[in-house]
Protein 1
Amino acid sequence: MIFGLTFPETAVIGLLFAAIQFGAMIYLASLGEMIAERAGVLNLGVEGMMAMGAVGGFVFAIETGSPWLGLLAAAVIGGAVAMIHGLFAVVLGANQVVSGLALTIFGVGLANFWGTDYEGVRPEVQFVDVDWGPLSDISWIGRILFQQSPLAYLAVLLGFVTWFVLNRTRGGLALRAAGESAATADAAGHSVLGLRLFAVAIGGAFAGIGGAYLSLSISPGWTVGVVAGRGWIAVALVIFGAWKVRRVALGAFLFGLAMALPNRTESFDLPWDPILWSMLPYVLTIAVMIAGALVLRNRPPAAPAALGLPFRREER
Amino acid sequence: MKSTKSTKALLRLLALLMAFVMIAAACGDDDGDDGSADDGDSAVTDDAGNDMADDDMVDEGMDEDDMAEDDMAEDDMAEDDMAEDDMADDFSAAFLYISPIGEAGWTWAHDQGRLHAEEATGIPTFFVDSVNDGSPADIEAAIRTLVADGHDVIIGTSFGYMDTMEAMAAEFPDVVFEHVSGYKANETNFGNTFGKIYQPRYLTGMIAGAATETNQIGYVAAFPIPEVARGINAFTLGAQRVNPDVEVVVQWTSTWFDPAIEGDAADALLEGGADVIAMHQDTTSAGLAAEAAGARWVSYNSDMSEFAPDAYLASAIWNWGPRYAEIISSAADGSYVPGFYWGGYEDGIVDIGSIAADVDADIVAQVEDIRQQMIDGTFAVFSGPLFAQDGTQLLAEGEVMDPGMLLGEAFFVQGVVGDIG
């Protein structure tokens, strides 16, 4: 007991398990958004792409009987939907904020429409938590780290791959160049449009996987509103994480905690108003953005310099 | 230089926008359906047309009505009015739902009621689904479309529709409006309907109380309002009837409809030692969590046994059909009188769903006995001696809770573990 609060072992383990689970789901979407933004494309359509991934993943998993095919479909669908943003914001140079918002509205609406016949259908196909054998039996750590959904490990893997590709490969350098100074990348012989479209597609695929995490693992099944604003948190996390993989991962875990803690007020005997508790993730978002703005006020901006700017060759 | 500046401006705009979205999302949790907020407008018109056309329960005669109505919707206002007169003898009713119908849950139960009413009265019925109850503009647009389509009765099945329906009832005095779960009515064409779902909750509490081996039941609760508290208290009293040592641990989610959160709250309760889960929200995720953990589950709204066949114990269910038939037929023959309807077992608006096969026969017999007493109107769930959570006596021996206290229940009874906020 610390400061009059109780910390029952099972509740702490459960909290950390859930925080990683929720965190990994948001992390996937956030990672994708970060890739797009590093290439200079702001995509506010994450919520819509996650919804499409959630419904598409569930539909394909049910129809094929395999959660992995569902996951693949979710990634493809997320990437395909992202190409709408790619067409307008990248190819045609339209305003990225407007195009992204439109993608969210369109994606959520289309997902709801597509999912009508799958609403509340029994999730006969879903991901089963991984059993790592002896590792999973270790006290505390075993439950928290080694009994997660396969998608949690996929999120970690994709995080490493993203970091490596962005920072240690020529392609990653070109992609970052497209986001920092598109004209320079162009002069260096790279196709800015190609790089940006690729980044947006990958971003969409990651968001789709994040959505499928919800519909195939965390709360198996499709219902309207299953994404419930988490796509927006993923966008906020990129800013929180200052466009860096590690910080985005840390931020995602914090948001996972903020999502899981209000569901355990009773386990921890916390007295506060339940509705105030459920505001925690959002309050945290606003607090982090204010704090970030204050701390980073006098530093060079962490954002890619060409973020949000359409590239047209003749205007360089 | 220039590009950095505009990036900053863009980021500033984005930050502002996101702050708005965050606030909207935080507030939106109350209606439990923020996901559909964005597409509300399109759902109103599109769903009205598509859903009607897709509805396979609609008979052939009604398909013609459908087509007539679809045509009408495309015509301009003047023609609408004419068409409305033409259709004066085609009495019809329309329902507003907060979510898609799905295969179980709150809206599914209402839709079963609609289908029953259609069969019982022979009056065609229609529905619009996914009408966000947190958006008065969406609700109003949906109602105006339905009125323009010539519907004579409009039944809204989510709490948040109340104020808009009240205003629309004043604007369209010839249309009967009936609102489910609110607390408002007028004297002419706006009535209120709800039911004593706490009665079957008491019965499911008995079954859960007998099923628990840890003497700890987890209750995934929605919002700390009287309707939810009443359900928790009735459930607890039922559980205590068969198991005096039982505790009901309440975890709030502040959601009506967020499967990820509700499943996680159930997990937390199971980790805390509960081996039976009860819930109040509109999703099945608490049941899926119980099924995955090898625990048991009591469902709400409709019989959800097929979603978690091993976990499922029993369910407190709604049977809206007879009431809807009554509203629609009385509106059709002009005898409709608005008021506050709060029916119970005696009216058949609530009941208990199927009971799992492994429930002890003796418990099933006890449940059947109390159920019969409820139907006969001789059993009061909230009767003395009744003690509050902190041990203060609420009702003396032989006393029955008066309706005012029942409707305003903002406390927990003894045996409930948790804060009511």
Note: Residues 277 and 297 of chain B are 5 Å apart (CA to CA).
Protein 2
Amino acid sequence: MADYFAGIDIGSTMTKVVILGDEIIATVIGPTGVEQRRLANKVMEEALSRAGIPFEDITYIVSTGYGRINVPFADKQVTEISCHAKGVSRLVPAARTVIDIGGQDSKAIRIDANGRTKDFVMNDKCAAGSGRFVEIIADCLGVPLQEMGTVSLKSKNPASISSICTIWAQQEVTAGQAKGRPIPDLVAGVHRSLADRVVRMARRIPLEKEIVLTGGGAKNAGLVAAVSHMLQTALLVPEEPLITGALGAASLGRNMVEKAIKKGISLETKKRVLDVVQIL
Amino acid sequence: MINDFIDVYKNRHDYAKDWKKKNPDSKVVGYMCSYFPEELFYAAGMLPVRILGSHEPQNVTEPYIFGMYCPFSRDVLAQGLQGHYDYLDAVSTAYPCMHLGQAFDSWTLHVTQKKFYVDMPNRVQTPYAVPFLTGRLEETKQEIEEWIGREITDSDLKEAINVYNENRALLREIYEMRKADDVPLTGTECMYITTASLFMDKKDANKLLKETIENELKGRKAKTADDTRLMVLGSENDDIKFLNMVEEFSAVIVTDDHCTGSRYFWNPVEEQDDPIQAIAQRYIDRPLCPQRDYPERKRLPYLLDMARDWNVAGIIALQQKFCDPHELDKVALLDWFKENDIPTIYLELDVTVPIGQFKIRVEALLERLREDELW
């Protein structure tokens, strides 16, 4: 029987699960919502169903993301820094820098050829450099979130938008609308502003090629183009940029088990039961 | 014992008020910078107490200090404006950074009028620093004498020096004990001890330190060799919550470079014929605050030696948000530790600590240090 490993990444906005055999055999992506502990059970059930394997067959489960402590069936919790590093390295072995633009934070990680973290930076105490920024502006302009990227690419004259604070940027967008600025220019300005914030943070670590962009931000073509333009280099984006954390979690789980076997020790695991967690 | 220090840390004002009741003819003087020469005031029979913030959000300082000054300087001033230090007979400082300087000026305008300002030179590396400070301390001594109406004798000064040197030696002994593989006390406990010492009559502190070392720390194992050894460094830091959070992850903080930690007590006053000059020499020679670490950058090799001597695996550099001296220091410091292969993270402190956001950074550092477990 093959060994299976699961990684579950509970981000501030999306929850992701990857089940890994020799290759990825199932992935599930769903919104995190307010009841993340209940959702952890549901998305794992869904992933098992897609993989067509019973829960008992999962050898080791690693949780990550800001909700990682809310996964009662996880055998180990690992930060998203280590998990993104490992996950990206598995998908893009040549990667040396990961820029992750998530729902409420963004980070840049320098990695080695084995996917080990060599250095990292995260945004400081403010979500202005994160996906939430685009969500708020999309709401404000009435543009569907998934269309923000393509709308921004239509702009020939991007507006200049402050990158200091989401709320101020929102006011600038509203003022721009009042003056009749075309929506694509405002959206492009917002993407430049977000990219500027992310790039300034990322430059605090030495940026080495290949640079891989992940997280929800990597699904936004306008943002990818803006970050790429500012860094003056092409960026690589995995086919599904949301799953690198969960994939890294599953891969690190495999590493840990293999190491334990070599050492002749066994790792503690949780009971393979998807209990509903009572939220107090 | 350690609990007694925790009590003083938490009830620092009650401690000072009790001291005043027991010593009705003596004065309590608050000070704002660790370059303040406490020995002079102790020799005059006073209790010097460090003024620290409360880590509680406040809304009283806005009219009295710039909003872009560091959260610590604003928190310190808030303590005065809120009346928490109403038992002080005088407020004082040695020439500090610009931010604490404004907290001091504002305090003397709006809270405590009686003040002592010790003109501690900024350029401590010049040969003029010791004679300059010796002269300034002579003047401060005269000011104190006029205030209390009696002379401070050489014998008073020598006794004060002895008490303070004993305190420094005892605190240093505790730091030496932290070099052990099985550390006898956590970094959090040590922070309680060193910070409480800032508020205490050093004779009381010394008695308690001796008891704690003899009866509590010897043979104790608070952490083991499996815990990851870390050093914290940076600007003022008495953030117990932060240290506690770090040590929950199988880590132990074994040493520090903070003005409320090791920098406060590291070197003793070396004996000289002139006790005032001996005191001046001690403050010029002490481990440097980044504001005074010029033109030669002495902190870099000093901190690397400390990291190696205490066998730390990683470093957490913390600074008060907007702290100019540390903001400048950090650039060279982070490069220096990178060149010397000591993984370091850098965090900015505010009045309250964003525990959730700091947790992931600290855990990621620890995962990097324990990479053999994961990779």
Note: The first helix of chain A runs from residue 36 to 51.
